[in-house]
Write a structure and sequence with these properties.
This protein has about 280 residues and is of the alpha+beta class. Helices cover about 35% and strands about 35% of the residues.
Length: about 280
């Protein structure tokens, strides 16, 4: 009897895990299909399939709602705007996309652009969207691109631990609560940097901070809005100041053995006037 009960229990556990994986995959699929409906297929029917009628927009330059998405399709198609997805993370009903866009001048103001996007998915449709955009830089301080590096998600059981590590790093180091603790968060052996202005390693980060401080131009993080993670990848959405102007900071960290070993980011100025009243966060 115990053996039968154990087998049933294992079967139920396997079924639950399988269902969870399918749910996770389906959210990522919805996110990808929603992007393709706009930036590859330019298909109004698909847009209405994958976007909620009450779609909430946080991109500062695009009006809220589904109709503005539909109305821009001919423009995107005429410019042959397309995209490449480099990383996809899922945390609850949020999906984070790390994308590059090509022929995107009319969409983002740059011919070739990098974005981090956050989609909130509800009832199998995209209900809300946040993003930050920056131009592609070909020559970077580290020699790395803004999108290359590992993509494989591992250490799922460490997701919450890694999210706490990154959140505390933002508070202690980037928000200045205890900056001397930086070596408790960032690996001294490996820190691969994808910000185009910063070199690899703790030394490269230190040099960048020292230079910005000497110019009285150090970036300031003031509020963390989202910490989303899946396994060894943790994404944060924050706001603050740079160049004495309000900025949105979108950061992606890769964690290994309890230390941050890699970083990608997109930084975008927050405009005074937006195409909606939803704000960027």
């Amino acid at each position: 009897m115990k053996l039968i009960t154990g087998i049933i229990g294992l079967s139920l556990l396997a079924s639950c895990n399988s269902t969870k994986q399918l749910e996770t995959q389906s959210l990522k699929d919805i996110a990808e299909k929603s992007k393709a409906s706009v930036f590859k297929n330019y298909n109004e029917k698909d847009v209405r399939t994958y976007f909620n009628d009450g779609y909430i927009q946080h991109n500062p330059n695009v009006p809220t709602g589904i109709e503005p998405v539909v109305s821009i399709l001919p423009t995107l198609q005429s410019e042959n705007t397309t995209y490449t997805t480099h990383r996809v993370l899922q945390d609850g009903n949020f999906v984070v996309l790390h994308n590059s866009y090509q022929n995107a001048t009319k969409a983002f103001g740059y011919k070739d652009a990098i974005t981090f996007e956050v989609l909130r998915i509800e009832n199998e449709k995209v209900a809300e969207h946040w993003d930050a955009t920056t131009p592609i830089v070909l020559q970077t301080a580290s020699g790395r691109s803004q999108t290359d590096g590992p993509t494989t998600i591992i250490d799922l059981e460490k997701t919450n631990e890694n999210k706490s590590l990154v959140k505390n790093f933002l508070k202690d180091v980037l928000m200045g609560e205890n900056p001397s603790k930086i070596t408790e968060y960032i690996s001294s052996e490996q820190y691969d940097q994808h910000n185009p202005m910063v070199k690899d390693g703790l030394k490269g980060l230190g040099e960048a901070i020292e230079y910005l401080a000497s110019q009285d131009n150090l970036f300031k993080y003031s509020k963390i809005h989202k910490v989303l993670g899946e396994g060894n990848f943790v994404f944060t959405q924050s706001e603050g100041e740079w160049n004495n102007k309000p900025y949105a900071f979108y950061d992606l960290f890769r964690v290994k053995d309890g230390k941050i070993v890699e970083h990608w980011d997109v930084v975008q100025e927050i405009p005074e006037k937006m195409a909606h009243n939803n704000g960027m966060f």
